[in-house]
Amino acid sequence: MIEQISDLNMQFLIELLKDSANLNKEFDILNRFLNERKCTFRGEPMPTYMKPNFISPKQTTTLQQMVNVISHVLNRFITHYLQDKQVRKIFGFSSLENELFAIEPGYSIPLVISRLDAFMEDYSVKFLEFNCDSPAGTAYSDVMEEGFRQFLDRYPVLDEWKFHYYMRQEQLLIALLNCYKEFSQGKNAKRNPTIAIVDWDDVSTHSEFELLKEYFEAREFPTLIASPQKLKIKNDKLTFNDEPIDIIYRRVITRELLKKKDDAADFIEAVKRGMVCMANPFRSNIVGNKKVLAILTNPKYQGIFNREQLKVIRECLPWTQVLSRDKALFNDFTVDLRNFIYDNKNKLVLKPACSYGGKDVHLGFETDDETWHRIVEENIDSEDWIVQQFVNIPEEIFPELKGGGVSMKLKKVNINPFAISGKYAGTISRISDNAVINVSAGGGLIPTFTVSRK
């Protein structure tokens, strides 16, 4: 099937070259669709390219299996973190963060939605980090797939292929309602609870909230878009503009919320007192910290996992360590971590444990020795950074429109599968000229289609 996908990619690129005179017009139509459907980033159509990422059914099955197992691992680890003082010490979360993590959500699965960022080459999957606190992209992915379906219909070469689609917004809504149902046992649960999508007013992904609001309300679930500081407790209910809220779909990032905790006091208090069902719960942020990869790959902490889970951990997680002055295991050898990082710079990556959006990620082969040494020395005692083994970055040819023409250019590709209620929920891909692949850092977003011959 890999060979068939390679053939499809080549055939489609040839079709695009044959149609190069119309590609700018087609791209304008696609961008207009994305803009009209609110699939935007910082007020502009979501950056994208003229070819999706095609994967085979077998690749999809592999990805699905890995995502499902890793989701169980992460859910299990959250419970372990709350019970193990030594693990909590390694992560170094503040007492206030740990106080939020201790809040019982009222339902059984702490990771309601997550996005597990990875590289996939043939059937090999390597997860580099987990977006578990407040991941974006479900609605954007659905809209982008819809726009590309219309675009791809114009190319007969694709007529002999069957496409599989995921409705992530539907799965997200079902997950939120299931959480609310479990949360409301023994209480007066509403048949059509009011949902509030909560984040700051000025975030770059605000348009996705509008998409979700439209989707939820079309299914008769009243939906509000609210910033944390505008939520108020009235008559033992959390409200927005005096409207009682039953479910919070939390998109505000935990540590950014804590920076303004006094402004958002009613929001936090309502969650503490169980006035409202919130997903994700704050404790999901535990496994959003990149130190979790160092713990999961350390034999000392693997006793809580079963054989299948350990197999997937070994296959899918790159060697990762918390940046420190300690000794470390590498391929069963004990090494002085600091010296090892200096001696093997070109095979390693340094990044903050709590960052997102590709911020401050330093690849050894792209970083000069002086900068590399400075980063290590400035952060080695804080233990707030990780060092990770560099994973080979898949590359693929994509069409690039410039000066009214089209050229074919090799781009770096990552794959970003969603998990909703612990189950695979499709994936999206990002591409870039840079090794650090992120839309915030100048990359593009493209749909990922599972395709098979009819």
Write the layout of secondary structure elements.
Elements: H1 2-18, H2 20-36, E1 40-41, E2 44-45, E3 53-55, H3 57-83, H4 85-91, H5 95-101, E4 113-121, E5 124-131, H6 138-152, E6 161-164, H7 168-183, E7 195-198, H8 206-218, E8 223-226, E9 231-234, E10 237-240, E11 243-244, E12 247-250, H9 254-259, H10 265-272, E13 277-279, H11 291-296, H12 307-316, E14 320-322, E15 327-330, E16 333-336, H13 337-343, E17 348-352, E18 362-363, H14 369-379, E19 385-389, E20 395-402, E21 405-420, E22 423-432, E23 444-453
Helix pairs in contact: 2-6, 3-12
Structure description:
With 454 residues, the chain is α+β, with helices and mostly antiparallel strands. Helices cover 37% and strands 26% of the residues. The chain contains 14 helices and 23 strands. The protein has helices spanning 2-18, 20-36, 57-83, 85-91, 95-101, 138-152, 168-183, 206-218, 254-259, 265-272, 291-296, 307-316, 337-343, 369-379, and strands spanning 40-41, 44-45, 53-55, 113-121, 124-131, 161-164, 195-198, 223-226, 231-234, 237-240, 243-244, 247-250, 277-279, 320-322, 327-330, 333-336, 348-352, 362-363, 385-389, 395-402, 405-420, 423-432, 444-453. Strands 3, 4, 5, 6, 20, 21, 22 and 23 form an 8-stranded mixed beta sheet that branches. Strand 9 and strand 10 (237-240) form a beta hairpin. Helix 2 packs antiparallel against helix 6. The two termini are 13 Å apart. The model has no long low-confidence stretch (mean pLDDT 94).
